[in-house]
């Protein structure tokens, strides 16, 4: 074999290795990471909150914090993937300062909750449902919710099935399944969607779980009496696209705010005054207007 042939062979091997790494190994690794539960971490509730332990229908234990409010309404707070209740402190304080009660929910496979979830929250709809059951047993009739990242997608996916939540703020929502990803027309080509397909297939393989049958878009449109506020980060390419998709599906009962210069779920940090005003006004108008 001549020198030129050896060079071309080496380049071919390198190119093939790069293609395999990019289109197979990378998405499979992402799927594996998404399937591994975060390290268990039992957290003590901050001042004003009481620790609440719940059990879901499949006997999964959930670690939660609860603080009743002053205006009769309670907001369920839901964290993002690989996160925990501590990440919700700033949002909890914002809501409590406005007079709202707060129920901070740790999803299965995260923090101090049991079970095995994944980074897309496929099995977490029942976690939201049991939180609502708890609040209704406490006599709460005005229930809203605010989710960050994965938490926002879990809430949107639960909207049609848990109508007691009548107002949802979805901060950083995009997709949680291949079906969600493909609701954006430009994502539907095999070339563009290949790595996403491999990643979600890997999550199914490694977690042993199936994605929800209902897409986020269909849950939003089927939740006939629920109001939505979609918050998207300007610097995260997919968030404004999905935010616009969801808002345009139900424009008569939703609003979209694209936070200038913000990173993923960083709206409260980079534009605090506007964020507080937007979120609190939304909840005031949807939960308290008929009081």
Describe this protein's structure.
This protein has 291 residues and is α/β, with parallel strands linked by helices. It contains 10 helices and 8 strands. It has helices at 3-35, 89-97, 125-137, 150-158, 178-181, 190-207, 216-222, 238-249, 267-270, 272-288; strands spanning 50-55, 61-67, 73-78, 101-105, 142-148, 165-171, 227-233, 254-259. An 8-stranded mixed β-sheet has the order 1-2-4-3-5-6-7-8, sandwiched between helices. It is globular and about 80 Å long.
Question: Nutshell version of this structure?
Answer:
The chain has helices at residues 3-35, 89-97, 125-137, 150-158, 178-181, 190-207, 216-222, 238-249, 267-270, 272-288; strands at 50-55, 61-67, 73-78, 101-105, 142-148, 165-171, 227-233, 254-259. It is an alpha/beta fold and 291 residues long.
């Amino acid at each position: 074999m001549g020198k030129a042939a050896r060079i071309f062979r080496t380049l071919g091997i390198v190119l093939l290795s790069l293609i395999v790494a990019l289109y197979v190994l990378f998405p499979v690794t992402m799927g594996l990471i998404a399937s591994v539960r975060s390290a268990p971490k039992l957290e003590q509730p901050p001042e004003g909150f009481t620790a609440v332990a719940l059990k879901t229908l499949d006997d999964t234990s959930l670690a939660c914090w609860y603080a009743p409010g002053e205006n009769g309404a309670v907001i369920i707070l839901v964290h993002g993937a690989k996160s925990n209740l501590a990440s919700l402190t700033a949002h909890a304080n914002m809501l409590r300062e406005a007079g709202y009660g707060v129920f901070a929910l740790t999803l299965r496979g995260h923090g101090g909750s049991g079970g095995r979830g994944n980074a897309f929250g496929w099995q977490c709809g029942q976690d939201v449902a049991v939180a609502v059951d708890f609040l209704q047993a406490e006599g709460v009739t005005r229930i809203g919710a605010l989710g960050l990242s994965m938490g926002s997608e879990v809430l949107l996916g639960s909207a049609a099935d848990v109508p007691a939540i009548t107002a949802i703020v979805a901060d950083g929502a995009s997709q949680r399944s291949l079906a969600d990803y493909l609701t954006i027309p430009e994502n539907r080509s095999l070339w563009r969607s290949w790595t996403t397909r491999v990643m979600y297939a890997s999550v199914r393989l490694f977690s042993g779980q199936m994605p929800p049958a209902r897409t986020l878009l269909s849950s939003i449109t089927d939740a006939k009496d629920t109001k939505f506020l979609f918050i998207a980060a300007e610097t995260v390419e997919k968030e404004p696209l999905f935010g616009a998709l969801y808002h345009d599906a139900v424009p008569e009962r939703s609003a979209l705010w694209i936070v200038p210069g913000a990173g993923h779920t960083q709206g409260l940090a980079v534009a605090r005054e506007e964020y507080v005003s937007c979120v609190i006004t939304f909840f005031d108008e949807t939960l308290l207007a008929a009081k």
